[in-house]
Amino acid sequence: MIKCVDDSVVVCAPTALNQQNFVASIWHDDWKLSLPGSQRKVVAFDNLSVTVGYTGSITARVPLVKGSVFATILIETPAVVGLTTIHAITSIDTSRGSGVSIVQLNNGTTWFVYCESGAAAQQSGMSGLTFADSVHGAVRLALVNNGDQAIKALSSAKDTVPIGGEVSIQTSEDSADFSINWKVRDGDNSDALLMSALPHHQHALTNAQWVDSAGEFWSSKGNMRMILGSHWNWREEIEPLEFTGQTPLTETHKDNLLTLVKADANALPADTGALPPDPYFFGKALARAARIALIADEVGDIGSRDLALQRAIAWLEPWLAGTNSNYLIYDTEWSGYCTQAGLTDPGADFGQGRYNDHHFHYGYFVYAAAVISKLNPDWSKSRLDALDLFVRDYCNPSAEDSAFPFMRHFDFFEGHSWAAGLFAFADSRNQESTSEAINSYYASYLYALATGRDDIANYVRAVLQLEARATRTYWHIGDITSDIYPDVYSNNKAIVGILWSSKIDFATFFGANPEFIYGIQFMPYVPATALILKKAWIEAIWSKYLLAVADGAQSDPWREIIDLAYAVVGKEDTLARISRITSHDDGNSASNSYYWVATAPIE
């Protein structure tokens, strides 16, 4: 971990604080390189890196590249610099080659320190390291995790510096090929590049040159494995996904849904004043109406379909025209689409004006837009530019679009979205509801399909598949892998409530009830939910955790959200359980619950 502040760059090899309800990375200033009189600013960035530039008495650049094994400071003008540590230096070995020092600290760690210009390191006091000559070029530090074998691997890679990277996706009907191409400095040997891969990479990369002799690095997401080379490649198999569920409805299911969908459609309010003014809860209500319309269409109830569709269009029109009370504004500072309340008050609308949760909020709008576009394409065509704005805000696949950023929330190295916007948190970025992230990309996929943009649909479907893999790897304990998190955490739970950049948390932002912590990873129930709720995992955790969570839930809506997960294991049992439910989540309905159970795949 690297922290860039004015006057210095601080490097930390974090240690773990393992607790029953969280695992946190503990920061300590293992090394500080002082740049006195210098100030910092971002000078370059891409999808995998940010470069911080320092100007002042010392000019330097710090490439912050995802997966880097070394912390690198590029000194651009020859200068006298030194390193300090909060620990005591117990030994320095400078016999490993020009500019190389192996430094042992009294906390038990060993560090590989390299000065590219060849200046020899020497100890200064108990906790300082100075270089005999002025320094220019790279100063690099890496943790030594496997003795001499690690030192050998680091020595081979010390002169190849990553400065950025590119992600490319090639899609076909049933698969997507992903590539990460790391950029190195001009003249560096890209074949010697040593990087580190997260667990989801380790399960997916093909023809990887693993360098296990270099050891592994701990992270709050699991150990990172060393890999050689500047090209990473893997293929994601694309699961079938459409507007409708994977399992066809039986005639009995259709008959039961006819009754439910009629009641749900008739209950939708005609008065838009009865709807929530904020984009999250309004979006959920809007998507609920769209789901009712789509289910009614599938079972042949044209009256209920048209009524639900009429309600959804009437509710959405004021948001498109800017006549609702909490109207939307284009923010020229950060190139985004925000509510008036959010831009006025940083805490309003869940921090929406500071770009928190845009994919959650607008994912519901886009889902409704997709359904309307499918069922009433003439209306959609007349509003296409306005509807597109919601998609472009959070799921913009074009780096050439000057009005909105490329894929605002999605992190192509981590493999998932970050929900946090411009707020600074102690544990850095975070995402709580993976299922709402899944819904947002599913919605964008359907919208692209319904509006005839198949190339965009294929791209978003590939991103959706990545989000699903990361969800099952990092939020679902024991799904794809069971050995990422320490036993003290994983032995008594099967979920991560909030995943931070440097922490995992059995919690939510809105309460500590177990049904909240599990349920926020399951809702809303749409056909894409099948990408993350797999029979083997739900079957394994139902009796151990979920049954008690459902039975102990303090309200029907949250009890139903947990119960519905069991549909991928047993449909009839799930229908029996939800028959006791008398009220639903504000984004759900009786017909949608029944439809999910009826169409959920049982592998």
Automatic annotation (TrEMBL):
Q: Does the keyword Transcription apply?
A: no
Catalytic reaction list: Hydrolysis of (1->3)-beta-D-glucosidic linkages in (1->3)-beta-D-glucans
Q: Which residues form a coiled coil?
A: none
Q: Which InterPro entries match?
A: Endo-beta-glucanase, GH81_C, GH81_N
Q: Which UniProt keywords apply?
A: Carbohydrate metabolism, Cell wall biogenesis/degradation, Glycosidase, Hydrolase, Polysaccharide degradation
Q: Which segment of the chain is annotated as a signal peptide?
A: none
One GO-annotated biological process of the protein? cell wall organization
- Taxonomically, the superkingdom here is Eukaryota
List, alphabetically, the Gene3D superfamilies matched: Golgi alpha-mannosidase II, domain 4
GO MF terms, alphabetically ordered: endo-1,3(4)-beta-glucanase activity; glucan endo-1,3-beta-D-glucosidase activity
Residues forming the Glycosyl hydrolase family 81 N-terminal domain are: 38-240
Write the Enzyme Commission number(s) for this entry: 3.2.1.39
Q: Does the keyword Nucleotide-binding apply?
A: no
Q: Which residues form the Glycosyl hydrolase family 81 C-terminal domain?
A: 279-591
User: What is the similarity comment for this entry?
Assistant: Belongs to the glycosyl hydrolase 81 family.
Instruction: State the name under which the record lists this protein.
Output: glucan endo-1,3-beta-D-glucosidase
